[in-house]
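User: Hi! I'm working on a homework problem where we have to compare a predicted structure to a textbook description. Could you give me the structure for the chain below?
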Amino acid sequence: MAVMTAALFFPMTACSDTKETEHGAATDGAGTETPVPDQEPNPGKDSRIAWEVAERLAPGWNLGNQMDAHADGTASETCWGNPAATQATFDGVKAAGFRSVRIPVTWLGHIGPAPDYDIDSEWLDRVAELVGYAGNAGLNVIINMHHDGAESGYWLNIKEAALDPERDRQIKEQISAMWTQIARKFKDKGDFLIFEAFNEIHDGGWGWGANMTDGGKQYCCLNGWNQTFVDAVRAAGGENARRYLAVPGYCTNPDLTIKYFEMPEDKTADRIIVSVHYYDPNEYTLTAKYSEWGHTARTGECAGHDEEEHVKDVFSALHEKFISKGIPVYIGETGCVNRETEREQAFQRYWFEYVFKAAKTYGMAAFVWDNGAEGTGNERHAFIDHATGEFCSEPARMAVEIMVRAMTSETAGYTLDSIYENAPFSE
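Assistant: Happy to help. Predicted structure tokens:
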């Protein structure tokens, strides 16, 4: 995720004049009650492996704007304002109830020339140190190639690769060389460590660029890059033969992933996970144009009143495409910026609770995006201090607790239905 992140692209309906009665039923402008739609799906645990992966990973936390930060063409842990992470960071994440941490890593400025593309040892050692901290804390860990592919602005350039087969070949050679080095560095680490091939790969259009008109060339390139990644890691020896590997669809957009992603071939069965991101609707979760969310939100303060149904539609489609067929999926990034007033914070917690519970219901782990940016509003996603592991604020603590509960609670009666019925200000 960039400092400014575009969202996923699904249409949202406009706010209506619908209001809620004390029993949770909706009324139209004339006061006529209409029934609340059923909010509890029943997808069923139809694939043991996919569900076990979700339960093992969930919930997850992102050490964002940290090892993925970069300036003047070089990645640097602290150049975007966050302090260096410590063992206390990961101990705090674990104590907060998270089971996994995703450590986005940008490699820019730490890569040697072709054909070897040697990775700077100090940078790789720092990544290994953080992986060690997370392992010490008892967390699962995901590392990746992050902003190397940001908006096709650097070497991992899908725009150029789609237009030039020779450029595509060269990029694949670099992918293979770099992931081989990374995999060999960690070949003795057990399956608590997962490799994620790439982050949000796109041409700068966030899913609305040339990929829409190029006859599938960019999708084909990314599918090929994912295959190159899998082949490189599997050939690197040690624990890499059976390590879980995560691969993204285009822009990590659920809709584009469902339509155009192709599973890479893997000589090791049942060890590929699909990675998607979810920030819908972005004008609520990222830019804070709207201050409320869901069926009880006030008209003019929300992006739409069918938003819970939209969550179900997206997650149900992912379940049908992948999880029902035994293919694990995780939501590697999701989140909602911090808010100022108590009313706004109540809706933020409702968004987290509904989205994280929906992810659990449909068999996916969700990883909250935490970029360390304190305050409220646009792109302010600070929940856990990146140096101390302490909560950044009392509202942050309350938000994290609701995420953890939504992904881990097995309490009878705690369902999407019950969350929906207890939405903020539903009287």
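For your comparison, note the following. The chain has one domain: 47-421. Residues 165-185 form the longest helix (21 residues). Good luck with the assignment!
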